[in-house]
Amino acid sequence: MRNSVRCPKCDGQSILHASGIEDRSTHAKDAVLSIKGDEPFTVFGSWSHVGVIEAYICENCGFTEWYTRDPDKIPHGETVRRLKTKPRKGYR
Ligand SMILES: [Zn+2]
Predict the structure, then answer these.
(1) pLDDT higher for 20 or 58?
(2) Where are the beta strands (DSSP E) in the chain?
(3) Looking at the domain assignment, is residue 85 inside a domain?
(4) pLDDT tens digits, residue range 4-30?
(5) What is the pTM of this model?
(6) Engineered SS bond to 58: which of 44, 63, 67, 86, CB 3.0-4.6 Å?
(7) In-domain check, residue 23
(8) Cα 46 to middle of ligand 1, angstroms
(9) Ligand 1 centre and the CA of 35: distance in Å?
(10) Within 13 A of 55's CA, how many CA atoms are on the CB side?
């Protein structure tokens, strides 16, 4: 939907992009949903925008796709782990 600008559910062609989703579970001003790391993602004491959740929303039916900003920059640790694929049997 992000690239096609077309809803896979209703074929709608009016897609909204939300570059941040407000986190209403906290009273912190401008808190946005983001991936939780072992340590806060900060740059020089300010919150980093790494791992912020974005959404693409079909204006017709409301279907929503979620994406994480800069996934290649998210630190790995206990909370965020890279899953490894298992080699296929009989495949070289
Ligand atoms: Zn739709």
Answers:
(1) 58
(2) 15-18, 42-43, 46-47, 53-58, 64-68
(3) no
(4) 999 999 999 999 999 988 888 777 777
(5) 0.75
(6) 63
(7) yes
(8) 37
(9) 26
(10) 14
- Ligand 1 centroid distance, CA of 50 (Å): 28
Those residues whose C-beta lies under 8 Å from the C-beta of residue 68, and which sit 6 or more positions away, are: 35, 51, 52, 53, 54, 74
Residue with tokens 């074929």: 11
Question: Would 62 be classed as within a structural domain?
Answer: yes
Split into its structural domains, the chain has a count of 1
Ligand 1 centroid distance, CA of 5 (Å) = 11
60's tokens: 């017709």
- Asked if the structure places residue 86 within a domain, the reply is no
Distance 59 CA to ligand 1 centre (A): 7
- Distance from the CA of 3 to the center of ligand 1, in angstroms? 15
CA of 65 to the centre of ligand 1 (A): 11
| Neighbouring residues of 77: CB distance < 8 A, sequence distance ≥ 6 | 37, 38, 39
The Å distance, Cα 1 to ligand 1 centre, comes to 10
More confident residue, 48 or 70: 70
